Amino acid sequence: MTVIDDLIEALGTETVLTGEAIGERYRSDASTTGKSLPLAVLRPSNTEQVSLALAICDRHRQPVVPQGGLTGLAGGANARGGDIAISLERMSGVEDVDTAAGTMTVLAGTPLEVAQLVAETAGFLLPIDLGARGSCQIGGNLSTNAGGIRVIRHGVTRDNVLGLEAVLADGTVLSSLNRMVKNNTGYDLRQLFIGSEGTLGIITRCVLRLRPLPAARLTALCAIDSYTHVVSLLKSAQRELAGLSAFEAMWENYFRFNAEALNLTFFDKATPFIVIIEQDANGSDEDKERFETFLGKTFEDGLVTDALIAQSEKEARAFWSVREGHLMDQLLPGLINLDVSLPIGQLDDFAGDCEKALFARFPAAHVSFFGHVGDSNLHVAVWIESPSEHDLHEIDAIAYDLVRKYKGSISAEHGIGTLKRDFLDHSRSQAEIGVMRRIKTALDPNGIMNPGKVIPLRS
Ligand SMILES: Cc1cc2nc3c(=O)[nH]c(=O)nc-3n(C[C@H](O)[C@H](O)[C@H](O)COP(=O)(O)OP(=O)(O)OC[C@H]3O[C@@H](n4cnc5c(N)ncnc54)[C@H](O)[C@@H]3O)c2cc1C
C-alpha cells in the first residue's frame, strides 16, 4: 500500500485531497517563492486525525508541511513537489473563554480575526494583531511567533501563549494546555513549538492570554525632522503614556508613496519621518486631554514639527492604512519585504547604509523603510523590475550582510522558512544551530516535519 492508500483508508477521501481536487490556494504562501503542487492535501477535523495522519506519514518516511492561513512571508508553508500538505483549516473555533482567568482555548485553524472578535464579545482584548488578521490562523501565528502592531505593549505571540497541544512526527499527542501564568514545572515544552515553523510538530490547539479590552484608543500622526527626535519621542511616550500600544515609524518615501497611492494628504510639508502613536485609553475626557497635553509638550520641546490627532475611528484607520501600505503590493508587484531587527538607536544608520548598498547594485530600485520602531523591528521594502533568482539572492545578501555587521537579527517576526534559511548563521552561532539540529532529531528522527525549512541544509 502507498502512503496515499493508507491515508485514504484511515481518513477517507473527504480528508485526503489529491490531483485535481487540490485547489490553487495550497500551492504557496504569501512569500515570493515559487508555487508547487503538493502530492496530497490532508484536511483533518480533529487532533486524533492529525495524529493518525502523522503516524502513517512517519511510517512511510513521507515529508509533510503544515499549512495555516498561508499568509507567511518566508516560504515556510510551501510544499516541495512530493510533500504532503496538512491544512488546519477545518480545525477552527474557540472552545472556551475563561473570564475569571482571562484566557481562551482556541483550535489552531481558527482565523486570528475570529478569535479576536470572540475575545472582544467577552470583554477582552486578544493582543496578537497583524495586517493579515483576516486570513492567518492562530496555529500559524504561534508557529511563526508572529509580532505585529501591539508588541510594544503586550509582547510577541510567544508572550501571549500559556499552553498548547501539539502532535509530534510519530503521532504522539503532547497536551500541554496549561492555563496559568505561573507554572515552573521543568522544561517549558510549549516554547519548542512556538516559532519553530512546523519543523517539530503540528500545533492543534492552544490557551491564549487575554487582556482587558480598552474602552477607547487615542491615535496621533506625528511629523518628525530627525531620527534622533524619533527615538526621543519614543522614550517620552514610553515614560508619559501608560497605555502606549503602538509606535510605528515610516521613512519619508514610504509614507509619501502610500499616502499618494491612497490619495490622502495629512501635512503641508514633507518631513523625513512620520510616526503613528497609539494609546489604550479609558474613554474619559481627562485621558484625551492628557494625550493632547503630551503631544503639545513634544511640539514645544521640538521633537515633533506637526501632529494630527484622529477625531474618529475613520481618521485613525486612514493613518493606519498608510502604514499598512496594502496598495504597495499591487502597484509594485513582486515587492520584497525584508524584516530585520537592529538596536533601536541604529535603525536609521542601517537604513542609510542599506539604501546606499542596494542603489550601488540596483540603481533603479525602489527602496523604502518602515517599522515597529518601539520593538527595534525595521521593514525594508525593495522592488526591482523583473528580478532573476540571482538578483533576489543578491538583495538578501546585501541586507543580511549589513544586519550581521550591525549585530542584528535577519528575522524580527516573519520567521526563517526557506527564504532566510541559508543566512541563519548571520544571526545564530554554529553552537546554536547545532542544538537546533539535535532538538529536531530528538523530536523528528525520520525528518518528516517540514524538511528543508529553518535549519540550513548540510553541505
Ligand atoms: C498583509 C500581511 C501582513 C503581515 N503582517 C505581519 C506582521 O505585522 N507581523 C508578523 O509577524 N507577520 C506578518 N505577516 C506574516 C504572516 O501573516 C504571519 O507570519 C502569520 O503568523 C502566518 O500565519 P499563517 O496562518 O498564515 O501561517 P502559514 O503561512 O500557513 O504558515 C507559516 C508557518 O507556520 C507553519 N504552520 C502553520 N500552521 C501550523 C500549525 N498549526 N502547526 C505547526 N506549524 C504550522 C507552516 O508550516 C509555516 O512554516 C503578514 C503577512 C501579510 C500577508
Automatic annotation (TrEMBL):
Cofactor (UniProt): FAD
Family recorded in the similarity comment: Belongs to the FAD-binding oxidoreductase/transferase type 4 family.
Q: Which UniProt keywords apply?
A: FAD, Flavoprotein, Oxidoreductase
Please name the PANTHER family in this protein's record: D-2-HYDROXYGLUTARATE DEHYDROGENASE, MITOCHONDRIAL
Q: Where does the FAD-binding PCMH-type domain start and stop, copy by copy?
A: 34-213
Which Gene3D superfamilies does the record cross-reference, listed alphabetically?
3.30.465.10, 3.30.70.2190, 3.30.70.2740, Uridine Diphospho-n-acetylenolpyruvylglucosamine Reductase, domain 2, Vanillyl-alcohol Oxidase, Chain A, domain 4
Q: Please give one Pfam family short name.
A: FAD_binding_4
- Top-rank lineage group of the source organism: Bacteria
Name of the protein in its database record = FAD/FMN-containing dehydrogenase
Family matches, as InterPro entries: FAD-bd_oxidored_4_C (IPR004113), FAD-bd_PCMH (IPR016166), FAD-bd_PCMH-like_sf (IPR036318), FAD-bd_PCMH_sub1 (IPR016167), FAD-bd_PCMH_sub2 (IPR016169), FAD-linked_Oxase-like_C (IPR016164), FAD-oxidored/transferase_4 (IPR051264), Oxid_FAD_bind_N (IPR006094)
